[in-house]
Amino acid sequence: MNDRTIHYIIRFLLGEDISGEVIAAIGYTADRKLYDRYSIVIVPSGFFNNQIYGTAASLPELPLQEIEGTPLLFGSPQIELAGDTLVIHADIIASTYFLITRYEEIIQRNERDEHGRFPGKKSLPYRAGFLHRPIVDEYRLLLRSWLQRYGLRVPDIKKQIQHIYLTHDLDAPTLYRSWKGFIRSLRDGRGLRKSIKGRCGPVENDPYYTFPWMFQQNKALQDQVGTDICKSVLFVRSGGKSKLDKPHYSLRNKDVNNLIQSALSNNMTVGLHSSYQASITPSLIRKEKTGLEENIGKSIYCNRHHFLASREPEDMTQLEAAGITHDFTMGYADVAGFRLGTSYPVRWINPVNRRLSSILLHPLTLMECSLEEKKYMGLDYDKALTYSLNLVEQVKNAGGELTLLWHNTSAQENTDSYLRKLYSHLLNELAKK
Fold first, then answer.
1. Which among 135, 113, 117 has a CA at the least distance from the CA of 126?
2. 350-379 pLDDT, tens per residue?
3. 163-173+208-430 falls under which CATH superfamily?
4. Helices in 266-338 by DSSP H: which ranges?
5. Which residue in 302, 209, 221, 293 sits closest to 258, CA to CA?
6. What is the pTM of this model?
7. Which helix (H) or strand (E) holds 302?
8. Residue 119: is it exposed, middle or buried by C-beta count within 10 angstroms (0-12/13-18/19+)?
């Protein structure tokens, strides 16, 4: 394991408000002769040994041990003094690396759902019962407490949400505005006159076009907490010929173009919603990004994969090559929680070559359809609200960032879905945090 990546993980765990002097006081070594160089030593568990790393033998076995109430993937909970050095046998460096790199997903490439995604319910955090907890952030708290125990001056983490990202994926802008939609309208029994109005009338009358309502909700929260804390992002597709990229919409379409301009005028960021086809053929990402940039006349630096179908490391490599610096894909579709084990944005580390990338991964805390859809969590409103508020509280306690994904189709009025109501409720609660 290279020193640069180890140093990054220690810095990530401690946070940007910790001095370099404190960073230098932490060692990651099993050589007892070197212990007296450091105030705290974390003993490597052997996870990074060349004979073990990258093999099935490197995967943690359940049940896991705990260190001061926090699940520990590698090492043991033993803490001892060696002279004046506090020696921690809990390998929180390897445990952090395992989670923030999605290491297990690379080792188990044969474990995929119908969309080529690693299922959240197959993940170690889910099987061990802590997917709803950002345990990497708990390691952060532990490491600070150990430093304080040693006598070093380290501030406590402020229990507040640092940033809120309200994000929306533009999958199906409208329901009835195309000629196919017109036919669909007739089949739905809306009648000829209503179908013509749906095809040619104001786009705001289309049941899928809930953007004005969502933008209004977002602005209300921004007015409460400030635009420096709360930001909105609209992810737009600019390619994809796969069957699962339907409906295929054009960026030159009047409704789509007006929507993008509305988003920009509302100080929203426009990001790339890389297509389902691009998740299968990642080399298409650059072309899709360029097409979106040419259409809106702005540089694109954010991405989220359609269907959250970010798979092998090749996807990230192509994002980096295309100039993407922020990715918002990192959540599981089938269950909400902390896919990366953290609520903090973290640089991607390629687990194949262990190289530190320039891409910053923003953990996706909650996608709305994960809660409601029967094939995923299948929660009723009360349970969905309780689960969501618990995730929000976890982020607040860790001092991390919260990212919500709400599709326009989930904000429809007069449906059996509770997702419109839930979005409004969550944003009202966030205004109080």
1. 135
2. 999 999 999 999 999 999 999 999 999 999
3. Glycoside hydrolase/deacetylase (3.20.20.370)
4. 276-280, 285-296, 313-322
5. 209
6. 0.96
7. strand 302-305
8. middle
